[in-house]
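Summary for the steering committee. The consortium agreed at its last meeting that each partner would contribute one worked example illustrating the joint modelling workflow. Our contribution is presented below. We chose a case with several input lines so that the handling of multiple components could be demonstrated. No manual editing was applied between input and output; the record is shown as generated.
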Amino acid sequence: MANVNLIRRAEIGREKRVRTRAQLVEAANTLFARRAVESVTVDDVVQEAGVAKGTFYTHFDSLEALTAAVAEELVQSFDELLQPGRTAITEPALRIAFGCRAFIDKALNDSRWAAVAARMTAANPQSGENLRRRLLEDLQHLSAEPPSAELKLEIVVGIMLHMLRVLGEGRLSSFDPDAVVSAILRAIGLSLQEARSVLKRLPAAGTEKSLRTTAS
Amino acid sequence: MANVNLIRRAEIGREKRVRTRAQLVEAANTLFARRAVESVTVDDVVQEAGVAKGTFYTHFDSLEALTAAVAEELVQSFDELLQPGRTAITEPALRIAFGCRAFIDKALNDSRWAAVAARMTAANPQSGENLRRRLLEDLQHLSAEPPSAELKLEIVVGIMLHMLRVLGEGRLSSFDPDAVVSAILRAIGLSLQEARSVLKRLPAAGTEKSLRTTAS
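What follows is the complete predicted structure of the assembly.
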């Protein structure tokens, strides 16, 4: 009986920790939506979450670690939203183009989202593990032409992360999402004609709204 | 006469500031060469430079700002080393390929250099101004096919920065520099045949040593 209580108590502790961590991530997310990421302090976050400052440091080493967790959360949840639309596509190159353009459209529509997501890399270059794994699988189904699928993955990730950063900072005078997707497709080995054909067959307008429609 | 003295005194002050700043950058550079960038503290830097801690903060807001300055210095001085070899090339695409492969080879030969250089972005996304300007000029001489030269610049920068990061972390099992350069050339609009032709005409082996030879 004592044993059962101990197990249950450990469980409650674990659940509470998960809840508190989620509260901190949620609080940071709310603050980032309201003002510049740079201006948010640990004090702001604990006040918003309604927890003690010491609690913050039992969950995160630093504000940067929390920002990375927020970014991971933003990217993962958007990626999950894409899955129904993505898995309905059978052609690997079209699947890659679909994912890339959805992320670019999302970043275009929400520069705050893009800025926070781009920070993920700085704090954790191997983040977005599910995303990377799925992208690698698609790349392995493309032609075996060099570079290797492993290197193609890094090329796509490099372009996409930089685009999120650029869109997060809003520093390009004009931006053509299709041109970026085409550049990505060509970098991973498609010809101009093949890239054009993929773009033509992409489900129209990858805005957040239409993605929700695709996903539902 | 008093006026001249004041001017001279201001000059001496300026020179001293420039010297102290350079001392701090040099000290950090020495420390980064010896051990992991993450393990270096402000105390280590001031001790190595032989200056007071307060002096550090008159020159840099934080250790990150100093790391960015070190990175900027590393990248700029390597870029300057490349200029003689680069300006001898008249074809824009070949010039771009020359620069990219030289940076990749440098990163392959010196992962510490790559790791520090990659940090530049995190701290200052618009860094490497000379490099960006020159690259943009070359891109403007390529075909006017979309994406715009401005967007092509960000695509090249995105791939290159990510490659520096990846090589700095040493996390790819194999790495083919030519395959990356080819991917870059195709992303900015060259066909596979054109990219192959450029690679064939690239001055052989862009190792640091041969670059020094080219530059001298």
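DSSP finds eleven helices and no strands in chain B. Chain B has two domains: 1-60, 69-215.
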